């Protein structure tokens, strides 16, 4: 089977690679939730970025004239986004709502592009943004989510940070993905460690008692989600138009909801399902219209 778009199509092997990206990112929600249940959120994030930094040390090179942009991205993405996403996962009562609400970075990115990049929104993208935000509001009335509204607030904050990082990355050119990830790890690792030491307790106890399974969680988050997930995505984007690849990534939150139900024991109500459908439909509209442009 081939997915056609005008004269372009995604080959079956590359469709499997797109599925691999979705599975890797969906599993990361499950792994992250399990990780913050054992480690403190900022400690888990520290371990994750330490692994990423060690693996990417050969690509940690000074980028003359571009370090200010790289450091801005590293702070917003590595420090702000990931700290909030893991704190939100720790505070949440489920995985499903987190996986869906995290997709708000797409409409937030569209809104920020209007302010910072001078882009214009057509009626379809406005409708998609409205549907996405309305869907998250519906999710907020789900009993499990309503009991953990602080978690939803953290995830929305993480989505805003991701949107800002997305705009900053669109302004950056001539820097490889691995080099950028290496600098994100270099900035995030000591920053997250410092925040953990100042704001959390019980880190040494968790490190002393953790077995191989728990240490494998941040390792997977670094390798599976960042290196494999983003690496395969960059490969696909070099071979196909953005309008073909980005819609395929919407499978990730759906798979995360399925994993949340089957593995974590999430019990989604009709409010979460309806809100999730509204949010993902809105994100799909914004993504497709953005890709067309």
Task: Walk me through the structure.
This protein is an all-alpha fold and 293 residues long. Helix content is 77%, strand content 2%. It has 14 helices and 2 strands. Strands 1-2 form a two-stranded antiparallel sheet. Helix 2 (41-56) packs antiparallel against helix 9 (177-199), helix 3 (67-91) packs across helix 9 and helix 5 (105-116) crosses helix 8 (149-170). The longest helix has 27 residues, at 12-38. The relative contact order is 0.22.
- The helix content is over 70%
Measured between the Cα atoms of the first and last residue, the distance is 27 Å
Biggest sheet: strands, sense, closure?
2 strands, antiparallel
Structural class: mainly alpha
Strand content: under 5%
Number of helices, counting only DSSP H or I runs of 4 residues or more: 14
Helix-strand string: EEHHHHHHHHHHHHHH
Taking Cα atoms only, what radius of gyration do you get, to the nearest Å? 19 Å
Shape designation: globular
Average pLDDT score:
89
Write the layout of secondary structure elements.
Layout: E1 3-5, E2 8-10, H1 12-38, H2 41-56, H3 67-91, H4 96-101, H5 105-116, H6 123-139, H7 143-146, H8 149-170, H9 177-199, H10 203-209, H11 212-237, H12 242-245, H13 251-264, H14 270-292
Antiparallel strand pairs: 1-2
Helix pairs in contact: 1-2, 1-3, 1-11, 1-13, 2-3, 2-9, 2-11, 3-8, 3-9, 5-8, 6-14
List key phrases describing it.
14 helices; 2% strand; mainly alpha; 293 residues; two-stranded antiparallel sheet
Produce a short descriptive summary.
The chain has 293 residues and is mainly alpha-helical.
């Amino acid at each position: 089977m081939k997915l056609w778009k005008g004269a372009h199509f995604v080959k079956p092997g590359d469709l499997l690679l797109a599925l691999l990206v979705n599975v890797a990112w969906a599993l990361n929600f499950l792994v992250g939730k399990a990780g913050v249940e054992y480690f403190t959120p900022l400690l888990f994030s520290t371990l994750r970025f330490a692994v990423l930094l060690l693996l990417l040390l050969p690509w940690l090179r000074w980028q003359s004239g571009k370090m200010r942009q790289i450091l801005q991205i590293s702070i917003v993405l590595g420090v702000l986004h990931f700290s909030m996403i893991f704190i939100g996962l720790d505070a949440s009562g489920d995985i499903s709502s987190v996986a869906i609400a995290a997709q708000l970075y797409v409409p937030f990115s569209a809104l920020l592009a209007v302010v910072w990049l001078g882009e214009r929104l057509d009626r379809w993208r406005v409708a998609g943004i409205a549907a996405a935000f309305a869907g998250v509001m519906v999710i907020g009335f789900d009993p499990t989510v309503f009991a953990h509204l602080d978690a939803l607030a953290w995830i929305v904050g993480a989505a805003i940070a991701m949107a800002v990082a997305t705009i900053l990355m669109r302004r950056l050119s001539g820097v490889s993905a691995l080099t950028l990830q290496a600098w994100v790890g270099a900035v995030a690792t000591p920053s997250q460690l410092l925040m953990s030491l100042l704001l959390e307790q019980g880190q040494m106890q968790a490190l002393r008692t953790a077995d191989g399974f728990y240490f494998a969680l941040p390792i997977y988050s670094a390798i599976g989600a960042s290196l494999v997930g983003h690496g395969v995505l960059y490969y696909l984007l070099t071979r196909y138009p953005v309008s073909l690849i980005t819609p395929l990534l919407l499978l990730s939150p759906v798979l995360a909801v399925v994993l949340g139900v089957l593995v974590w024991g999430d019990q989604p109500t009709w409010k979460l399902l309806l809100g999730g459908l509204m949010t993902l439909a809105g994100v799909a509209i914004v993504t497709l219209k953005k890709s067309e442009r």
